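sorry to bug you again but im stuck and you know this stuff better than me. theres a chain ive been looking at and ive put its sequence and its fold in token form underneath. id like you to explain what the token line says about the fold, in plain words if possible. anything you notice is useful, everything is just below.
___
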Amino acid sequence: MISAQDVEAIERATVAAVAPPDVAEIQGWLVPFDDGTVGRAKSAVPLRQDADSSPLDAIVAAYAERGLRGAFRIADVEGLAPVRSELTRRGFQAGKPTLVKVAEARAVAAFATPYADILEKPDAAWGEVFLGEGFDPVDGARRVELLTRSPNALYGAVREAGQTVAVGVLTFGFGWAGVHGMRTRLDRRGAGLASRLLSLFGAAAQARGFDRIFLQVEEANDARSLYRRAGFQRAWCYSYWT
């Protein structure tokens, strides 16, 4: 079961992981400010899933003061129906539905052979995976920039023949470990590299004393089945409102 305290912890950990340049708290909402491509770094999110719409004016004004357009990340739960209704009235549209999934660290650690490297700091080869064939280079560069300044993070890398072919990030905070930035080079997909990274992260979470892990994956992403096999279960779904 996911409690109200878990929801707040995961939302705080989510924003911390992408390390936006500035974050405010406005009437129970977490409001990150960034002008890049990463939605989680620039979308306001309520810390409770029964929040009302009264802070929306203040949040939009805070974005406008910084020369940014207001954006929101809203869970598709009954308690936030008034917020979604008000955003619709204001002309916002929902898109990019994304699942928040949670798992026990011990189950993830046992999923596969954790044959991969843990880095305290990402190297150039780690970042290059985000810029490879099949990835948007602008978005990839922005993700590298944000994820490499995540606090309390470890960086996973699978290397073959001297080349880094799969990467990810494991963050720690607010009682949760979080998996972010999972990327596998196109020509090595389907080889079980992401499974190895996940198991490595499960073991690393246990070593740090974290029993639970969360991640986020778009509904359209084929990786959902991998995460399900690794023990991740749906907690909730959200959409970006822009």
Remarks:
- The CA atoms of residues 201 and 234 lie 19 Å apart.
- The radius of gyration is 18 Å.
- Helices lie at 4-18, 56-65, 81-89, 105-109, 124-128, 137-147, 193-207, 224-229.
- Residues 4-97 form one domain.
